[in-house]
């Protein structure tokens, strides 16, 4: 393993990297990994902000100026989520193919495209189709997560992956509330007519992220993550199960992050606010949810390191069922009366969403701890590989699945926005039906987690069965 002392200003490649080598890790590897983690977080943070830029831009788009109603805005914020989900597949492969440092620079600079497009067309209103196309380019920011997580997964040893991946993802996720907070500051000081200021801030942030990656990150040249690794990873049942569960955790986080401001704005408009007031009131609250979810994510990983990813994930889904139940109760009471929601019902809406944000953050951390644990356990059954070969196989499988699960999970964000839109345009014209759908889905996720990762483990523990090569361990995380 290379150390800082062996690295010159012109040398950015590390030919051999083994984070499981404790001596090398303590003698310099830890510092290298930490430096790469810091700038990976910065770049991913900016990527998440640009990915969610349209959750902010819609607050600057009164219907009488842009001609887009609330239902159309749900599609507009869903488009980046959809494109970002598909971008995560090639972005997963990119760090090993081009180098983590090199790809971080390129992926950061690509964010200039959606940011410049948003800046121009927010000042020059165009057709709804044009905005849908522009929003699709923001999906480039969604791909950054997959490449960043795959890269950092390779830098850290198994015993520290939960915390490192949780910190990396949480620092990236926090880009969502940060851009919403910047939007709030602009709306609060200048009104909802100056969206170009938000875009200008991110042109600077993108430049800082690209420059920081160029100066401080490294390429690991002994990593293998390609389509072959992804195909091999998807042969395992647990890969598909983890991808499904990630819909419930990350899909909830990103979907609610994009939709929460819209839900609040609709309720404030119903209460009699004009467009500017509704935008301000929604922005004052909307950023808090993604902020809490982002902060919670590293702690989800840390809890998974200590207790087990399977258990923490199960507890999280059970708690999400109750949080969704709060939304169902608030929505049912709201539907039963005429007019705008009462103060108590608004408190119920906000409390339910805030709990879902925190819990989805915890679940994000725990599920991503489970992925490397699963393949670490499976690697022990590979008698055809030596210790280093098992570690390399485990990292390749984990890295491939992290990107794929991230892509599938992001589709959950599309699902949330489409379900909310369908609920609002239905005869009831409220979100209550959508809340019921979310509740049922969390029940399914809890049952799947228990059945696949905890039930079989408990049965084997009770029977005293020895799990060897013929029966791959079922890790709890």
UniProtKB/TrEMBL annotation:
Predominant localisation class: membrane
Transmembrane region(s): 37-62, 74-91, 103-122, 128-146, 167-191, 197-217, 238-260, 280-300, 312-333, 345-363, 400-422, 434-454
An example molecular function term from Gene Ontology annotations: nitrate transmembrane transporter activity
Coiled-coil residues: none
Subcellular location(s) per record: Membrane
Pfam families per the UniProt record, alphabetical: MFS_1
Domain of life per record: Bacteria
CDD domains: MFS_NRT2_like (cd17341)
One GO CC term, this protein: membrane
Keyword annotations from UniProtKB, A to Z: Membrane, Transmembrane, Transmembrane helix
Keyword presence, Nucleus: no
Membrane topology summary: Multi-pass membrane protein
Similarity comment: Belongs to the major facilitator superfamily. Nitrate/nitrite porter (TC 2.A.1.8) family.
Protein name according to UniProt: Nitrate/nitrite transporter NarK
Species per Swiss-Prot/TrEMBL record: Mycolicibacterium chlorophenolicum
Lineage: Bacteria, Bacillati, Actinomycetota, Actinomycetes, Mycobacteriales
